[in-house]
Specification:
By secondary structure, the protein is mainly alpha-helical. 70% of the residues lie in helices and 0% in strands. The chain is built from nine helices and no strands. The chain binds zinc ion. The site of zinc ion has 7 residues, from loops.
Length: 250
Amino acid sequence: MISILVFVVGICVGSFLNVAIFRVNESRSVIKGRSKCRIFEEPISAKDLIPVLSFFILRGKCRKCKNVISWQYPIVEFVTGILFLIFFLKFGQELFTLIRDWIFISFLIVIFVYDLKYMYILDRFTIPAMIVAIIFNLWLGAIPAESLITGAIVLGGFFYLQFVISNGAWVGGGDVRMGALMGLMLGLNQGLVALFLAYLLGAVIGVILLMMKRVKRKAPIAFGTFMAIGTAVIIFFGDAPLQWYLGLFV
Ligand SMILES: [Zn+2]
């Protein structure tokens, strides 16, 4: 019963994340004002704003103007619900860790979707996320402060070096902040594992897309999406992937 409640709460959070992504891109307030139809600027009635369900009831089209609503909305809502649920099932015993993870995941979802859609990692997302990460991790104390600081410096510095060497051609300032954020969320060791995972995932997806001829070789890759996934995976699995990997050599 409580699992269903958590799932529904997650879906509603996902709905809010969609609004945040959309409105930040349009430079509007995330909290103030009602949701409007993109085309006619008419307010959308409450019965058409039910997360996930409305999309299917309306068959993906605006009730008034019949314009297509993006699949992003139900997908983000559903995935957020699922992630809230699986984190609850794993970490439900430790309430504050669970709340921290839900907040971290919410930031990562926004960063993921925004980078996928617009190819930017915005400071408006990474900087509040860094502040939240510092506060929560210092308060909970599971990761030593030195690990958080060195993690931020090493991972942020890794991208900063690339930024300096390439004169901003390989990576952007957003990647530097995202690297630092990974360090502040995970600490040094797990942060490095998450970074490795991001590169692994980027390589695999890159090869698949090349084989499907979806991208040209020089096409820029939204690397923030992979960093967000790598971070989320390590938040969930902790040390397990590294233990498994090291175990291969024993
Ligand atoms: Zn409309």
